[in-house]
């Protein structure tokens, strides 16, 4: 294995560490953000079953071991996880979010460099993951605002 192959999986570990650190500050939000990553991954698996695009490593040499036949290329699961994690982390902590965004781009790029995905696989994966996490972050903020506004609404009705 090359350092690029190992690095792709190591970046996923970096995201896990960031979620762990953020857990101590945000608890439920960090848990739900992590759940959003799982939802994004599940959606990508459904898309893979529909699209069934062969990987580039089936026809060209690659630096990484080519996954088993039936493990489709589009979208890149690593990129989905990276995009979802980066967006979720960004929603909780801007500084960590910048680090996560750079890590997500590096992870996605490495999948193309090692020859197991096409560029459109990783771009779609990043976009899918980020959109799912963004949607969950919007719902969480809306839910927080409605809880914050509840006493005001009650007081207005009483007054």
Description:
Keywords: Cell membrane, Hydrolase, Membrane, Transmembrane, Transmembrane helix. It is found in: Cell membrane. The protein has one domain (3-152). The protein is an all-alpha fold. The chain is built from five helices and no strands. Helix content is 78%, strand content 0%.
Set out the fold topology:
Elements: H1 3-26, H2 28-51, H3 77-92, H4 94-113, H5 119-158
Helix pairs in contact: 1-2, 1-3, 1-4, 2-3, 2-5, 3-4, 3-5, 4-5
Give keywords:
single chain; 159 residues; mainly alpha; 78% helix; 0% strand; globular; hydrolase activity; membrane; hydrolase; transmembrane; PAP2/HPO_sf
Would you identify the regions where 5 or more consecutive residues have pLDDT less than 50? none
* Mean pLDDT over the full residue set: 83
Q: State the separation between the terminal residues, measured CA to CA.
A: 69 Å
- How many separate structural domains? 1
User: What is the radius of gyration?
Assistant: 18 Å
- The gross shape turns out to be globular
Helix content: over 70%
Total of DSSP H or I helical runs spanning 4+ residues? 5
GO molecular function: hydrolase activity
Membrane topology: Multi-pass membrane protein
InterPro entries: PAP2/HPO (IPR000326), PAP2/HPO_sf (IPR036938)
Keywords: Cell membrane, Hydrolase, Membrane, Transmembrane, Transmembrane helix
């Amino acid at each position: 294995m090359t350092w690029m192959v190992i690095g792709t999986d190591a970046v996923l570990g970096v995201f896990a560490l960031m979620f762990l650190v953020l857990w101590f500050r945000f608890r439920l939000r960090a848990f739900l953000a992590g759940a959003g990553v799982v939802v994004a991954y599940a959606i990508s698996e459904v898309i893979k079953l529909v699209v069934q695009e062969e990987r580039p490593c089936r026809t060209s040499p690659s630096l990484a071991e080519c996954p088993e036949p039936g493990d489709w290329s589009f979208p890149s699961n690593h990129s989905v996880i990276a995009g979802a994690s980066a967006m979720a982390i960004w929603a909780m902590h801007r500084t960590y979010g910048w680090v996560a965004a750079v890590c997500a781009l590096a992870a996605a790029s490495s999948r193309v460099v090692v020859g197991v995905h096409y560029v459109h696989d990783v771009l779609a994966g990043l976009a899918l993951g980020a959109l799912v996490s963004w949607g969950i972050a919007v719902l969480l903020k809306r839910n927080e605002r409605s809880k914050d506004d509840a006493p005001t609404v009650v007081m207005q009705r009483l007054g």
